Amino acid sequence: MKIATYNVNGINGRLQVLLRWLAEARPDIVCLQELKAPQERFPEAAIEDAGYRAIWHGQPRWNGVAILSRIGAPVETRRGLPGDPDDSHSRYIEAAVAGILVGGLYLPNGNPKPGPKFDYKLLWFERLVEHAADLIAADVPAILAGDYNVMPTEKDVYKPERWVDDALFAPEARAAYLRLLEQGWVDALRTIHPDAVIYTFWDYFRNAYARNAGLRIDHLLLSPALTDRLIDAQVDAHVRGWEKTSDHAPVWIELRDPIN
DNA sequence: ATGGCAGCGCTACGCTGA
What we know:
The protein has helices at 15-25, 44-49, 116-138, 171-183, 188-192, 208-211, 224-227, and strands spanning 2-7, 29-33, 53-57, 65-69, 75-79, 92-97, 100-106, 142-147, 186-187, 201-202, 214-215, 218-222, 230-235, 251-255. It is of the alpha+beta class. β3 (53-57) and β4 (65-69) form a beta hairpin. The longest helix has 23 residues, at 116-138.
Protein backbone atom coordinates (compact mmCIF):
# COMPACT_ATOMS: atom_id res chain seq x y z
CA MET A 1 0.00 0.00 0.00
CA LYS A 2 1.31 3.39 -1.03
CA ILE A 3 0.54 6.45 1.10
CA ALA A 4 1.61 9.94 0.05
CA THR A 5 1.60 13.53 1.21
CA TYR A 6 1.70 16.50 -1.14
CA ASN A 7 1.47 20.23 -0.48
CA VAL A 8 -0.11 21.26 -3.77
CA ASN A 9 -0.07 25.04 -3.15
CA GLY A 10 -3.50 25.69 -4.67
CA ILE A 11 -5.53 22.66 -5.74
CA ASN A 12 -7.35 24.39 -8.59
CA GLY A 13 -4.35 26.21 -10.01
CA ARG A 14 -2.43 22.95 -9.67
CA LEU A 15 -5.08 20.47 -10.78
CA GLN A 16 -3.35 19.31 -13.97
CA VAL A 17 -0.09 18.74 -12.13
CA LEU A 18 -1.90 16.82 -9.38
CA LEU A 19 -3.78 14.62 -11.87
CA ARG A 20 -0.61 13.93 -13.83
CA TRP A 21 1.18 12.86 -10.68
CA LEU A 22 -1.75 10.71 -9.47
CA ALA A 23 -1.83 8.90 -12.82
CA GLU A 24 1.91 8.35 -12.74
CA ALA A 25 2.42 7.41 -9.07
CA ARG A 26 -0.96 5.75 -8.37
CA PRO A 27 -0.80 6.23 -4.59
CA ASP A 28 -3.55 4.44 -2.67
CA ILE A 29 -3.98 7.20 -0.09
CA VAL A 30 -2.94 10.86 -0.41
CA CYS A 31 -2.91 13.68 2.11
CA LEU A 32 -3.05 17.09 0.43
CA GLN A 33 -2.24 20.47 1.95
CA GLU A 34 -2.65 24.10 0.97
CA LEU A 35 -5.79 23.63 -1.08
CA LYS A 36 -6.28 27.42 -1.07
CA ALA A 37 -9.91 26.85 -1.99
CA PRO A 38 -13.20 27.32 -0.16
CA GLN A 39 -15.09 24.16 0.73
CA GLU A 40 -17.40 24.38 -2.30
CA ARG A 41 -14.59 24.84 -4.80
CA PHE A 42 -12.79 21.53 -4.27
CA PRO A 43 -12.52 19.78 -7.67
CA GLU A 44 -14.35 16.68 -6.50
CA ALA A 45 -15.47 15.50 -9.95
CA ALA A 46 -11.96 15.59 -11.41
CA ILE A 47 -10.60 13.74 -8.38
CA GLU A 48 -13.32 11.10 -8.67
CA ASP A 49 -12.66 10.73 -12.40
CA ALA A 50 -9.08 9.96 -11.45
CA GLY A 51 -10.36 7.10 -9.31
CA TYR A 52 -10.27 8.69 -5.86
CA ARG A 53 -12.80 9.33 -3.14
CA ALA A 54 -12.03 12.37 -1.06
CA ILE A 55 -12.82 14.28 2.09
CA TRP A 56 -11.56 17.80 2.54
CA HIS A 57 -11.66 20.85 4.76
CA GLY A 58 -11.41 24.00 2.72
CA GLN A 59 -11.02 27.64 3.58
CA PRO A 60 -11.06 30.70 1.30
CA ARG A 61 -7.61 31.80 0.16
CA TRP A 62 -5.42 29.85 2.57
CA ASN A 63 -4.68 26.52 4.15
CA GLY A 64 -7.02 23.61 3.44
CA VAL A 65 -6.38 19.86 3.75
CA ALA A 66 -7.77 16.75 2.08
CA ILE A 67 -7.50 12.96 2.20
CA LEU A 68 -7.86 10.98 -1.05
CA SER A 69 -8.24 7.24 -1.34
CA ARG A 70 -8.65 4.85 -4.25
CA ILE A 71 -9.09 1.81 -1.97
CA GLY A 72 -12.41 2.79 -0.40
CA ALA A 73 -13.91 6.04 0.78
CA PRO A 74 -12.10 7.72 3.70
CA VAL A 75 -14.26 7.53 6.81
CA GLU A 76 -13.78 10.84 8.55
CA THR A 77 -12.87 10.61 12.23
CA ARG A 78 -11.86 14.20 12.94
CA ARG A 79 -11.76 17.65 11.38
CA GLY A 80 -9.52 20.10 13.20
CA LEU A 81 -7.30 19.34 16.20
CA PRO A 82 -8.79 19.30 19.68
CA GLY A 83 -7.78 22.01 22.14
CA ASP A 84 -9.03 25.25 20.57
CA PRO A 85 -12.62 25.48 19.35
CA ASP A 86 -11.94 29.04 18.13
CA ASP A 87 -9.18 27.97 15.72
CA SER A 88 -10.50 28.94 12.28
CA HIS A 89 -7.65 27.51 10.17
CA SER A 90 -8.28 24.36 8.11
CA ARG A 91 -5.14 22.45 8.97
CA TYR A 92 -6.06 18.96 10.17
CA ILE A 93 -8.29 16.20 8.85
CA GLU A 94 -8.35 12.55 9.86
CA ALA A 95 -9.95 9.43 8.48
CA ALA A 96 -9.96 5.66 8.71
CA VAL A 97 -8.88 4.05 5.45
CA ALA A 98 -8.18 0.37 4.93
CA GLY A 99 -7.59 -0.27 8.62
CA ILE A 100 -5.25 2.69 9.08
CA LEU A 101 -5.99 5.94 10.87
CA VAL A 102 -4.70 8.68 8.56
CA GLY A 103 -4.09 12.17 9.94
CA GLY A 104 -3.35 14.81 7.31
CA LEU A 105 -1.87 18.03 8.65
CA TYR A 106 -0.62 21.42 7.59
CA LEU A 107 1.36 22.86 10.45
CA PRO A 108 1.57 26.68 10.60
CA ASN A 109 4.61 28.30 9.04
CA GLY A 110 5.21 30.56 12.04
CA ASN A 111 7.15 33.38 10.43
CA PRO A 112 8.02 36.01 11.35
CA LYS A 113 9.67 34.95 14.58
CA PRO A 114 9.14 36.19 17.19
CA GLY A 115 5.53 37.25 16.95
CA PRO A 116 1.92 36.06 17.10
CA LYS A 117 2.32 33.76 14.11
CA PHE A 118 5.19 31.96 15.77
CA ASP A 119 3.19 31.72 19.00
CA TYR A 120 0.33 30.19 17.01
CA LYS A 121 2.70 27.66 15.44
CA LEU A 122 3.95 26.48 18.81
CA LEU A 123 0.45 26.30 20.29
CA TRP A 124 -0.79 24.35 17.29
CA PHE A 125 2.20 22.03 17.56
CA GLU A 126 1.39 21.45 21.26
CA ARG A 127 -2.15 20.44 20.30
CA LEU A 128 -0.74 18.06 17.69
CA VAL A 129 1.66 16.51 20.21
CA GLU A 130 -1.22 15.95 22.63
CA HIS A 131 -3.44 14.40 20.00
CA ALA A 132 -0.56 12.26 18.75
CA ALA A 133 -0.10 10.94 22.29
CA ASP A 134 -3.75 9.92 22.35
CA LEU A 135 -3.30 8.03 19.08
CA ILE A 136 -0.27 6.22 20.49
CA ALA A 137 -2.22 5.36 23.62
CA ALA A 138 -5.01 3.96 21.47
CA ASP A 139 -2.44 1.57 19.97
CA VAL A 140 -3.94 1.74 16.48
CA PRO A 141 -2.08 1.63 13.15
CA ALA A 142 -1.83 5.33 12.42
CA ILE A 143 0.06 7.74 10.21
CA LEU A 144 0.49 11.50 10.64
CA ALA A 145 1.40 12.87 7.23
CA GLY A 146 1.75 16.38 5.92
CA ASP A 147 3.62 19.63 5.76
CA TYR A 148 5.13 20.04 9.22
CA ASN A 149 6.98 23.25 8.33
CA VAL A 150 9.92 21.97 10.39
CA MET A 151 13.35 20.82 9.34
CA PRO A 152 14.11 18.27 12.08
CA THR A 153 17.92 18.39 11.82
CA GLU A 154 20.72 20.33 10.15
CA LYS A 155 20.87 17.59 7.54
CA ASP A 156 17.42 18.64 6.39
CA VAL A 157 18.44 22.18 5.33
CA TYR A 158 20.69 23.12 2.43
CA LYS A 159 22.33 25.88 4.45
CA PRO A 160 21.51 25.56 8.14
CA GLU A 161 23.32 28.75 9.17
CA ARG A 162 20.92 30.78 7.04
CA TRP A 163 17.89 29.37 8.83
CA VAL A 164 18.85 29.73 12.48
CA ASP A 165 16.45 32.63 13.03
CA ASP A 166 13.63 31.16 10.93
CA ALA A 167 10.44 29.68 12.40
CA LEU A 168 10.93 26.50 10.32
CA PHE A 169 14.22 25.75 12.03
CA ALA A 170 13.47 27.21 15.47
CA PRO A 171 14.71 25.12 18.43
CA GLU A 172 11.18 25.16 19.89
CA ALA A 173 9.69 23.72 16.70
CA ARG A 174 12.42 21.10 16.33
CA ALA A 175 11.96 20.15 19.99
CA ALA A 176 8.22 19.66 19.43
CA TYR A 177 8.94 17.40 16.44
CA LEU A 178 11.42 15.44 18.57
CA ARG A 179 8.72 14.92 21.18
CA LEU A 180 6.63 13.14 18.55
CA LEU A 181 9.54 10.80 17.87
CA GLU A 182 9.97 10.25 21.61
CA GLN A 183 6.32 9.22 21.81
CA GLY A 184 7.17 6.40 19.41
CA TRP A 185 6.35 7.94 16.03
CA VAL A 186 8.78 6.95 13.31
CA ASP A 187 9.99 9.32 10.58
CA ALA A 188 9.51 7.00 7.58
CA LEU A 189 11.76 8.80 5.10
CA ARG A 190 14.63 9.08 7.58
CA THR A 191 14.26 5.42 8.53
CA ILE A 192 14.67 4.25 4.94
CA HIS A 193 17.41 6.83 4.21
CA PRO A 194 19.33 7.40 7.47
CA ASP A 195 22.14 9.50 6.03
CA ALA A 196 21.03 10.85 2.67
CA VAL A 197 20.47 14.52 1.96
CA ILE A 198 16.77 14.60 1.05
CA TYR A 199 14.56 17.59 0.41
CA THR A 200 10.82 17.92 -0.14
CA PHE A 201 10.58 21.67 -0.78
CA TRP A 202 12.46 24.06 -3.03
CA ASP A 203 11.80 27.80 -3.03
CA TYR A 204 10.47 29.40 -6.22
CA PHE A 205 13.21 32.01 -5.79
CA ARG A 206 16.84 31.98 -6.75
CA ASN A 207 16.62 28.93 -8.97
CA ALA A 208 16.44 26.84 -5.81
CA TYR A 209 15.36 23.56 -7.42
CA ALA A 210 18.15 23.59 -10.03
CA ARG A 211 20.67 24.34 -7.26
CA ASN A 212 19.08 21.73 -4.99
CA ALA A 213 18.77 24.40 -2.32
CA GLY A 214 15.96 22.63 -0.53
CA LEU A 215 14.34 21.82 2.78
CA ARG A 216 12.90 18.59 4.20
CA ILE A 217 9.67 19.73 5.80
CA ASP A 218 7.07 17.21 4.57
CA HIS A 219 6.99 14.15 6.78
CA LEU A 220 5.17 10.85 7.21
CA LEU A 221 5.23 9.63 10.81
CA LEU A 222 4.22 6.05 11.56
CA SER A 223 2.77 4.78 14.82
CA PRO A 224 4.51 1.75 16.41
CA ALA A 225 1.70 -0.49 15.14
CA LEU A 226 2.70 0.41 11.55
CA THR A 227 6.49 0.60 11.59
CA ASP A 228 7.01 -3.12 10.95
CA ARG A 229 5.20 -2.76 7.64
CA LEU A 230 7.44 -0.01 6.20
CA ILE A 231 9.32 -1.21 3.12
CA ASP A 232 10.06 1.98 1.17
CA ALA A 233 9.91 5.77 1.32
CA GLN A 234 10.74 8.25 -1.45
CA VAL A 235 10.35 11.80 -2.68
CA ASP A 236 9.02 12.29 -6.20
CA ALA A 237 11.44 15.18 -6.65
CA HIS A 238 11.10 15.24 -10.42
CA VAL A 239 7.56 16.59 -10.03
CA ARG A 240 9.09 19.80 -8.68
CA GLY A 241 10.63 20.25 -12.13
CA TRP A 242 7.30 20.20 -14.00
CA GLU A 243 5.62 23.27 -15.47
CA LYS A 244 3.24 25.15 -13.15
CA THR A 245 4.34 22.92 -10.29
CA SER A 246 4.05 23.35 -6.52
CA ASP A 247 7.09 24.43 -4.53
CA HIS A 248 6.76 21.11 -2.66
CA ALA A 249 7.29 17.63 -4.12
CA PRO A 250 5.11 14.61 -3.25
CA VAL A 251 6.50 12.24 -0.63
CA TRP A 252 5.33 8.66 -0.28
CA ILE A 253 5.81 5.43 1.61
CA GLU A 254 5.14 1.81 0.74
CA LEU A 255 3.70 -0.49 3.39
CA ARG A 256 3.52 -4.24 3.12
CA ASP A 257 0.16 -5.88 3.68
CA PRO A 258 -0.65 -6.78 7.28
CA ILE A 259 0.13 -10.37 8.31
CA ASN A 260 -3.48 -11.17 9.15
C1' DA B 1 21.61 40.78 3.57
C1' DT B 2 18.11 41.29 0.39
C1' DG B 3 14.63 40.20 -2.99
C1' DG B 4 13.37 37.09 -5.73
C1' DC B 5 8.36 33.81 -7.25
C1' DA B 6 3.55 32.16 -7.07
C1' DG B 7 -1.63 31.56 -5.83
C1' DC B 8 -5.68 33.68 -4.37
C1' DG B 9 -9.40 36.99 -4.56
C1' DC B 10 -10.35 40.23 -7.67
C1' DT B 11 -9.52 42.64 -11.69
C1' DA B 12 -5.07 46.25 -8.30
C1' DC B 13 -2.38 44.87 -5.44
C1' DG B 14 -2.14 43.12 -0.63
C1' DC B 15 -1.62 38.92 1.98
C1' DT B 16 0.60 34.74 2.68
C1' DG B 17 3.85 31.36 2.05
C1' DA B 18 8.87 29.14 3.43
